[in-house]
Amino acid sequence: MIDRIGDDLGFYQTTLALRQRRQEVLAANIANADTPNYKARDFDFTAALRQAMDGGGSMHLPDTQLALTSVRHIPAKAVTPDPAPLLYRQPLQPSMDGNTVDMDVERVAFADNTANYQTDLTIISARIKGIMAALQQ
């Protein structure tokens, strides 16, 4: 039963991690709105979530064990691939300095992602309250 609860909450954990990653990307775009030759980045949230869930339901790979030939070697951890490869945003109107950040597009995407993040938190909270109520009876 605990495994089923973990699997269910694992989806939401992955969703929140991707939303947080997208928020960082959008914030970087907004922060660099005046940087010459800065290229705005973003990723397809739906495709990234689908890829993360098809990969076992988590954005993390199991630890990789390497053969150590000396006691002085440092054990290595697996490098996790980026579940959301960043793409360049196509500018609607090119600027003279080569910057592709459109503040209107970035603000809308930022606000939309924030609202979706808050919605996901509300859903997780309701799920946990439902599980707690079921366990208390």
TrEMBL record:
The basal body constitutes a major portion of the flagellar organelle and consists of a number of rings mounted on a central rod. One of its GO terms (biological process) is bacterial-type flagellum-dependent swarming motility. InterPro entries: Flag_bb_rod_N, Flagellar_basal_body_rod_CS, FlgB. It is found in: Bacterial flagellum basal body. Belongs to the flagella basal body rod proteins family. Its main location: other. Keywords: Bacterial flagellum, Cell projection, Cilium, Flagellum. It comes from Pollutimonas harenae. Structural component of flagellum, the bacterial motility apparatus. Part of the rod structure of flagellar basal body. GO terms for cellular component: bacterial-type flagellum basal body, rod. Residues 13-39 form the Flagellar basal body rod protein N-terminal domain. This is Flagellar basal body rod protein FlgB. Pfam families: Flg_bb_rod.
